[in-house]
Write a structure and sequence with these properties.
Blueprint (H helix, E strand, L loop, with lengths): L6 H13 L15 H15 L3 E7 L5 E6 L24 E5 L12 H7 E5 L1
Antiparallel strand pairs: 1-2, 3-4
Length: 124
């Protein structure tokens, strides 16, 4: 079944992104009812922006969710960024993993060592 994103949400997010301003809330009736719809909204937004996705931010704290990291938001270390483009100001520590090789589905779970051999952890 295909999930149709709410175009009102996409347009509001697109306008906020282009203006460089935070969006306090989506317009009335535009909030996604579930994670699948939220992902569909995000996918439509990324398509409308026309930017390549450089990576994914994932979370399993409230169901499995993901967020696109746009290539324009990825900076090689060490990076110096102007504060004017970072409002609201704050620091959020992240741990990232570069996936070095596939870990195909299989009957037996992978060991921690096998997974660690297939990824490179880094601060993000």
């Amino acid at each position: 079944m295909s999930i149709e994103p709410n175009d009102t949400a996409v347009e509001a997010l697109l306008a906020a992104h282009r203006a460089g301003t935070p969006l306090a809330a989506l317009p009335d009736g535009a909030s996604p009812p579930d994670i699948a719809t939220a992902h569909a909204i995000q996918d439509r937004l990324v398509a409308r922006l026309g930017e390549p996705v450089a990576g994914w931010k994932v979370s399993a704290s409230n169901g499995l969710t993901r967020g696109a990291i746009l290539a324009s938001r990825l900076h090689a270390s060490p990076a110096v960024l102007p504060a004017s483009g970072l409002a609201p100001y704050g620091i959020e520590g992240e741990i990232a993993f570069e996936i070095l090789r596939d870990l195909p589905a299989r009957q037996q779970p992978y060991t921690r060592g096998a997974v660690m051999d297939a990824v490179r952890p880094m601060a993000a």
